[in-house]
Design brief:
With 413 residues, the chain is of the alpha+beta class. The protein contains 12 helices and 19 strands. Strands 1, 2, 8, 9, 10, 11, 17 and 18 form an 8-stranded mixed sheet that branches. An 8-stranded mixed sheet has the order 6-5-13-14-15-12-16-19. Strands 3-7-4 form a 3-stranded antiparallel sheet. α1 links the parallel β1 and β2. α9 packs antiparallel against α10. The longest helix has 28 residues. The protein starts with a strand and ends in a 23-residue tail after the last helix.
Length: 413
């Protein structure tokens, strides 16, 4: 026997997008249910991005999820570009009017949001595998899912898919009604975690004829490091010493600098690709985060785009709940896609400017160096990069005079 329940918003996916949306809706008085296919332990250990834009930090604080982030997160005022054996630092606050970024791992964001959700939020069901979404073009879409060995049905006023590119929510939009734009890059990243303090206080993006390298961190004692490698690379072919030697070679500059070496605790190869599905809404089904778009990690946009999506969406659903107006819901896809394509462009720019293609000519390399030199010498070019990196202002499309309750916990522009 199939058990059926109803909620205003059914959220598929208990990653940062789904959890943050649930938190924002709960604070707005909109009931919802979150279905996460994995168990809590898995959800809290998924290794993903760790760079939070200023707007993402603001939203997490506003919804009550910023306490540990403010205590343990690492606030950064810039990044360093390395190219042609030179180093150039970009000062974000000076270039953007005070905006910064914060290093705080996605795993920690998820842990914070899960704790809040289980403490005083809407239902969050782990091990609840969404099987199918039907009725997207009706007034009451349905999520068929399996939980605790039983097949169940959740009827909703709206379904939000935060379940990734291969999730069932995206498939609920008929093929004739959606279009996906994609690009695959001819290289991947070999990402490693190292039990060693970072070699720099801020991130280093290194362009080299040997390939790209990124020096990041998770905490003051854990480094996160990346090397450009060919697609299909087996991490087993990269012993620890080879990784450290290559990182040092790609970041070499004509100035004193020391690479801190230590034991590597994890290795994985990450493919580089871009994808955007349009529209992000079909009937009563809405997509957010990776279900709608994927960016290469060079621009640090994936998690931040997901936060922007659900912030816009939470405002729209709150407006629908409190006023009956669907104005913001009707504009949701267009509002988000403007930001998505800007982030896709920035991520593509960072990727193609800093990486060395397998068939790259010396002419192509000189063009890259010219672009990097322009960023280092032009305040306008530097400000353009800094503004995109720290995050463009959130577009909610919500006038301040709409009268939505302040207790929604959403930041006002």
């Amino acid at each position: 026997m199939t058990h059926t329940r109803h909620t205003t918003v059914g959220i598929i996916g208990g990653g940062p997008a789904g959890l943050l949306l649930a938190r924002l809706l709960h604070r707005s008085g909109v009931d919802c249910v979150v279905l996460e296919s994995r168990d809590r332990s898995y959800a809290e250990q998924r290794q993903r991005a760790g760079m939070l834009e200023q707007g993402t930090v603001d939203v997490l604080r506003a919804c009550g999820a910023g306490e540990r982030m403010d205590r343990e997160g690492l606030v950064h005022d810039g990044i360093e570009l390395r190219y042609d054996r030179r180093a150039h630092r970009l000062d974000f606050p000076a270039l953007t009017g005070g905006r910064r970024v914060t290093v705080y791992a996605q795993t920690e964001v998820v842990r914070d949001l899960i704790a809040l959700q289980l403490d005083d939020g809407a239902p969050l069901l782990f091990g609840a595998q969404a099987l199918e979404v039907t009725g997207a073009d009706t007034g009451r879409p349905r999520i068929r899912y399996r939980h605790q060995g039983r097949e169940q049905t959740l009827t909703c006023d709206y379904v939000v898919g935060c379940d990734g590119f291969h999730g069932v929510a995206r498939q609920a939009i008929p093929e004739h009604a959606r279009r996906t734009y994609e690009r695959s890059y001819p290289y991947s990243w070999l990402g490693v975690l190292a039990a060693v303090p970072p070699s720099s206080d801020e991130l280093i993006y290194a362009h080299s004829e040997r390939g790209f390298a990124l020096f990041s961190m998770r905490t003051p004692t854990v480094s996160r490091l990346y090397l450009q490698v060919p697609n299909g690379t087996d991490p087993a072919h990269w012993p620890d010493d080879r990784i450290w030697d290559e990182l040092e070679a790609r970041a070499a500059i004509d100035a004193p600098w020391k690479l801190e070496r230590g034991p590597l605790t994890a290795k994985a190869v990450l493919p580089m690709r871009s994808s955007v599905t349009e529209p992000m809404r079909y009937g009563r089904v809405l997509l957010a985060g990776d279900a709608a778009h994927i960016v290469p990690p060079t621009g640090a946009k994936g998690l931040n785009l997901a936060v922007a999506d659900v912030t816009v969406l939470a405002r729209a659903l709150a407006q629908r709940h409190h006023t009956g107006s669907t104005e913001l819901l009707d504009a949701y896809s267009d509002t988000c896609l403007r930001r998505v394509w800007r982030a896709e462009h920035f991520s593509s720019f960072m990727t193609t400017t800093l990486h060395t293609g397998p068939d790259q000519s010396p002419f192509d390399t000189r063009l890259q160096l010219s672009q990097l030199d322009r960023i280092a010498t032009s305040p306008h070019a530097a400000a353009e990069l800094a503004e995109n990196y720290t995050g463009l202002p959130l577009e909610t499309g919500l006038p301040l005079e709409t009268g939505l309750p302040l207790e929604t916990g959403l930041p006002r522009e």
